[in-house]
Amino acid sequence: MTALAPDPRGDTARAGLRTLRIETPSWAYGNSGTRFKVFAQAGVPRTVREKIDDAAVVHSLTGSAPSIALHIPWDRVDDYADLARYAEAAGVRLGTVNANVFQDDDYKLGSVTNPDPAVRRKALAHLLECVDVMDETGSRDLKLWFSDGTNYPGQDDIRDRQDRLAEALAAVYERLSGDQRLLLEYKLFEPAFYTMDVPDWGTSFAHCLELGERAKVCVDTGHHAPGTNIEFIVAFLLRAGKLGAFDFNSRFYADDDLMVGAADPFQLFRIMCEVDRGGGLDPATGVAFMLDQCHNVEQKIPGQIRSVCNVQEATAKALLVDREALRTAQRDGDVIAANDVLMDAYNTDVRPLVAELRVEQGLDPDPVGAYRRSGYQDRIARERVGGEQAGWGA
Ligand code: LRH
Ligand code: MN
Looking at the whole model, is its pTM more than 0.85? Predict the structure, then answer.
């Protein structure tokens, strides 16, 4: 038996992949689309339990997606503890709780930033309800994304809205207990087109600093201006101990919510390089890796499986970076050599390494192929007839 050549960086990559956990979003299993059309698909879940069943399939085939994020009220049930038990029996855990203060007529001029105190109280009540849900599900993270903003200069006072936002965030922060955290997600534009009240990482970072240790920034990779260097933001937030989570997806233009790594795999690699460099792959650092996507035209479950695999492959490439050689080249100011080190890792085909690791974990080396061969898609298309499919505009 020929002794295997020592492969220290391969070992590092395999070790990193063994602890990598990617949370899938309940809403990715439901129908989604754009303002032009939401396309229905056969077999789409009608209930949160069917969403959990689908998330469990993604985990069973990838081994790296052990939790599902909930969105309230889309996933509202009477008994969340019972739902948590159902999820556990299915092989997954209930993860991040997402609040929704963006789909009620009262929130036209804002939710927690609305000029009307009664509307602000209503919005805050929903955010606090979401913490109640976390108490029942055992979830650690509350993710807050606000559609709040204005469309025209003068529509409202930018500073007053920040005061109102800070007041609501402080009230929610006060309510957190145990290991609970608040993740504040930012977005440059949409649905507001002049100001968003949390438009960028700096605004989220500043509010999180003001709130305290439990408040962290959520980086949604689709929420930046074109050309934004997201890996710089990641490096900065990790250095400050304020990177709480990612909402992974990819885009060609705006908040396209496409499969992560599909539009720009090199960007995802660069991001994972900074995550690794900043200690973000160490579970103790507490960075949550979540998908936030909408499979408008592609099948949803294979889309989620492919997305998990894309993050695994980008992470494996990032972990193959010869850090020592990189440091030497950087120290020596050898720009070409430094860039070569990174490109060498990026241009490495890691699919055999990731496939071998799956086999080692008792999984099929090709999770998407395994899903296709499983017959699950035909079964749910047959079984899930009648009732209202879950999803946007449902
Ligand atoms: C907003 C967002 C947010 C979710 C929603 C489904 O664009 O990224 O994270 O609540 O999508
Ligand atoms: Mn998001």
Answer: yes
CA-proximal residue: ligand 1, atom 2 (nearest): 145
Given ligand 1 and candidates 23, 98, 127, 141, which is best to mutate, with the most ligand atoms within 8 Å of its CB? 98
Nearest CA to ligand 1 atom 1: 145
- Answer yes or no: is pLDDT of 2 > 60: no
- Looking only at the bridges linking them, the beta strands covering 149-150 and 195-196 are antiparallel
**pLDDT above 60 for 256:** yes
Residue type, 377: Q
Tens digit of each residue's pLDDT (9 = 90 or more) over 57-74:
999 999 999 999 999 999
- Residues with CB under 6 Å of ligand 1 are 27, 98, 145, 185, 187, 220, 247, 255, 292
Confidence of residue 195 (pLDDT cuts 50, 70, 90): very high
CB 32 within 8 A of CB 386: no
Q: What are the structural domains, with CATH classification, of the chain? A: 20-321 (3.20.20.150)
Best CA proximity match to 363, nearest among 13, 64, 63: 63
The arithmetic mean of pLDDT across residues 361-367, rounded, is: 98
Q: What is the position in ligand 1's atom list of the atom closest to the CA of 255?
A: 7
Residues 6+ apart with CB under 8 A from 275: 234, 238, 281, 287, 315, 318
| Residue 348 CA to ligand 1 centre (angstroms) | 33
Q: Whose CA is nearest to atom 3 of ligand 1?
A: 145
Q: What is the DSSP string of 13-39?
A: HHHHHHH--EEEEGGGGSBEE-SS-EE
222 SS3 class: coil
Kindly tell me if the per-residue pLDDT of 4 is higher than 90: no
Q: pLDDT tens digits, residue range 124-177? A: 999 999 999 999 999 999 999 999 999 999 999 999 999 999 999 999 999 999
Question: What SS3 state is found at 274?
Answer: helix
Pocket test for ligand 1, best of 68, 71, 145, 221 (most atoms within 8 A of CB): 145
Distance 336 CA to ligand 2 centre (A): 36
Three-state secondary-structure class, residue 301: helix
